[in-house]
Amino acid sequence: MSGRHPIRSGTTQVVWGVPYGLTNWEKTLAEMFSDAGYATAMFGKWHLGDIPGRFPTDQGFDEFYGILNTTDESEYSTQIGFDQSILPVPHIQQSVRDGEINEVKPFDLETRRLIDTELTEKAIDFMGRQVEVGKPFFNFIPYTQPHLPSLPHPEFDGVTGHGPYADVHVEIDHQAGRILDAIDDLGIRDNTIVIWTSDNGPEVVEPWYGTSGYWSGHYFTAMEGSLRVPFLMRWPGQIEAGSKSNEIIHTVDLLPTLATAAGLDVPQDRIIDGVDQLPHLTGQTEASAREGFPAYNGDDMFAYKWRNWKVHLIEQRHALHPPQTLNVPQIYNLITDPKEEFDLVPQGFAASWVFPPVFGEIVKFQQSLVMEPPVPFGAPEPWTPQN
Question: Which InterPro entries match (predicted)?
Fold first, then answer.
């Protein structure tokens, strides 16, 4: 949302009982587009703040429908000993810009199965309304699937024969297809950028266990299976259909890239970690505009990915296992060893030449955190930098 790494914006963790999420001081993609006259809407999972000042409609969105926190909440009311006099039943919520957050209906295991269909229908309705009045739009649809509990819509339950997690992926594909069909039906295909991606790798908790396939790991680690996700982008006439790349593009690159595409300016009063990737995406350059990035888990840098190398500073191969600080960092060649199984350090320091450039990048990033101190976790609202 901000073009900034979570360590800068204080969004490194979610802890109940303290303010979390993006402070209202942060400038979001939605605010950038809204300031330029776009209609903005979000339908789905927010998880970037659940207090006044940090709702989606406080952060640039004209409309919001979905859940403010996690899909785990849908399980609460069915769990052993749940006491709604202590913790209210979670709800699906909605709001409009400058309006109150309103509870629509309980978010439970039944509505958990149905919500992504609702999100799709609301997103299609939003686009239709904007096309009717001739207004450009930014439509953000963070589906709640496949996060646990990965329960598919009843129409998709059992369709694959490989369990609910596989069924959910078929449902996601179907819902995304409905969005694309709607864009075609509205006659705006050639003038609409569509991005389909994820913020992390597969679910790790049984029985909703997913696979990262060619790579290793699940979310909440610095393993490649956690960090590497699909990224598909369609812009007819600008991005060649069927083109592919194995270059690194990071989520933070979305803000400056979309700003360039729409002819907008990125914020100049704060560090923006993202870089403009439009030249690479449109085929003007073969290489990405970035060579790597730090991989944080909470407030600690677990690894740094650089080109096709990964240097682990803290080892954690499984999200539910304790992390281990390494006396000597590990080096992995992600081309010959995509599952990060063979540390090259014990092999006679076989790739020790990678350490100097990687640690140069690490030090440069850490110096930037000194130059512009991060938003502290738990910062109250309102919050503004002191320097």
Answer: Alkaline_phosphatase_core_sf, Sulfatase, Sulfatase_N
Q: Which domain holds residue 354?
A: 293-371
Q: Are 231 and 197 in contact (CB under 8 A)?
A: yes
Which residue spans within the chain are E strands per DSSP?
Answer: 39-45, 63-67, 91-96, 102-106, 137-140, 194-197, 231-234, 292-297, 300-306, 309-315, 324-333
Residue 386 is predicted with a pLDDT of 81
**Length of the chain in residues, anyone?**
387
Q: Are residues 182 and 303 in the same domain?
A: no
**Six token digits for residue 213:** 């396939």
Instruction: Write out the DSSP string of 235-283.
Output: -TTTS-TT----S---GGGHHHHHHHHHT-PPPSSS-------HHHHTT
Task: State pLDDT tens for residues 246-285.
Answer: 999 999 999 999 999 999 999 999 999 999 999 999 999 9
Q: Are residues 255 and 122 in the same domain?
A: yes
Phi, psi of 259 (to 5 degrees): -60, -45
What is residue 15's predicted lDDT score, i.e. its pLDDT?
84
Residues 50, 57: Cα–Cα separation, whole Å: 11
Q: How many domains, the chain?
A: 2
Cβ atoms 314, 330 nearer than 8 A? no
Residue 149 sits at the vertex; the CA angle it makes with 145 and 155, to the nearest 5 degrees, is: 65
**346 conformational bin, left if phi > 0, alpha if psi -120 to 50, beta if neither:** alpha
Q: For residue 20, give every residue at least 6 positions away whose Cβ sits within 8 Å of its Cβ, in sequence order, or none.
A: 10, 11, 13, 14, 49, 50, 377, 378
CA distance 258 to 38: 13
Tokens of 10: 């204080």
Angle value at C-alpha 242, between 237 and 245, nearest 5 degrees? 105
CA 237, CA 248: separation in Å to the nearest integer?
Answer: 23
Q: What pLDDT, on the 0 to 100 scale, is given for residue 14?
A: 84
Any domain includes 382: no
